[in-house]
Design goal:
By secondary structure, this protein is of the alpha/beta class. The chain has a single domain, classed as Rossmann fold (3-Layer(aba) Sandwich), CATH 3.40.50.300. It contains 13 helices and 7 strands. Strands 3-4-2-5-1-6-7 form a 7-stranded mixed beta sheet, sandwiched between helices. The longest helix is centred in the C-terminal third of the chain and has 15 residues. The structure holds adenosine-5'-diphosphate and magnesium ion. The site of adenosine-5'-diphosphate has 16 residues, from helix 1 and helix 10. Belongs to the ParA family. It comes from Bifidobacterium canis. This is Chromosome partitioning protein.
Length: 280
């Protein structure tokens, strides 16, 4: 049995990698579900106009529906647009629809454009009667204004790395962008977690990629890896996470182990963030 202790403070985590198809959305929704299953209160914010996280979590997100777009443009608060995930009573979702694709241009001239999400989230967490243990922000595959908003709204970055030949390509650019956000907007932002996804333990390549990532980032790569499984890729077409779709399968077990490992590191992570806050 995996028992989870609530983190001392809300952990705010953006899941980002400007490469598409590396497992950002799968990681966001399945970790969120794993934490909710373990009794944590979880909020997922979908910041990708594709709305894949909204789909997997079973919440409606048609064009015109209340969504994160209305939050960013100041027409609604998070509490007014969030929807409960049907499978997990302690998991709330701020959906995204294709409407969000217009937001980057529409907010580009606003003086506060980088902090639209942060301001809405701060206000929500302060006023919410529920204490949230984990907030996840699923990012689009870019380094544009929506992703910058995500990086400004959180204290942690989780970078999923696909176990493939070009795994580390582009990582330098992502780390640079995070560095710029730290320098100019959000000094406490911490790259707390890397998770190797689509791992195939039978291939030498997968093991080599894991070793390479581990060598470069020894303290932040989770020991747990996420295997490539058909169930993980099927679950979203049933508007489910793999945690509910195939609870006993290897995909669900791995995401639950990854969540446990992350939760276990809460004290260290929160202390690191707090010490950065005090330095600045
Ligand atoms: P991203 O959000 O980075 O674009 P996704 O999580 O949407 O990545 O994953 C890309 C594709 O790979 C999706 O079709 C998804 O279902 C599939 N996928 C993700 N993780 C796994 C996995 N561990 N095993 C098999 N398929 C996966
Ligand atoms: Mg995605």
């Amino acid at each position: 049995r995996l028992t989870f202790k609530r983190p001392a403070d809300t952990r705010r985590i953006a899941v980002a990698n400007q490469k598409g198809g590396v497992g950002k959305t799968s990681t966001t929704v399945n970790l969120a579900a794993a934490f909710a299953l373990a009794g944590m209160n979880v909020l997922v914010i979908d910041m990708d106009p594709q709305g894949n996280a909204s789909t997997a979590l079973g919440v409606s997100h048609n064009s015109g529906d209340p969504s994160v777009y209305d939050v960013l443009e100041g027409r609604a608060q998070i509490s007014e647009v969030m929807q409960r995930c049907p499978d997990f009573p302690s998991l709330e979702v701020v959906p995204a629809s294709i409407d969000l694709s217009g937001a980057e241009l529409e907010v580009a001239d606003m003086p506060n454009r980088n902090n639209l999400l942060r301001d809405a989230l701060d206000q929500f967490l302060e006023q919410s009667p529920t204490h949230y243990d984990y907030v996840f922000v699923d990012c689009a595959p870019s380094l544009g204004l929506l992703v910058i908003n995500a990086m400004c709204a959180v204290t942690e970055m989780l970078i999923p790395i696909q176990a493939e030949y070009y795994a580390l390509e582009g990582l330098g650019q992502l780390i640079n962008t995070i560095g710029l956000v730290q320098k100019h907007f959000n000094p406490q932002l911490l790259v707390s977690t890397m998770l190797v996804t689509m791992f195939d333990k039978r291939t030498l390549l997968s093991r080599e990629v894991y070793q390479e990532v581990k060598t470069h980032y020894p303290s932040i790569v989770l020991d747990t890896t996420i295997p490539r499984t058909v169930k993980i890729s099927e679950a979203p077409s049933f508007a489910q996470t793999v945690i509910s779709y195939d609870p006993r399968g290897l995909g669900a077990i791995s995401y639950r182990e990854a969540a446990y490992e992350m939760n276990d590191r809460s004290a260290v992570v929160l202390e690191t963030i707090a010490s950065r806050r005090n330095e600045n």
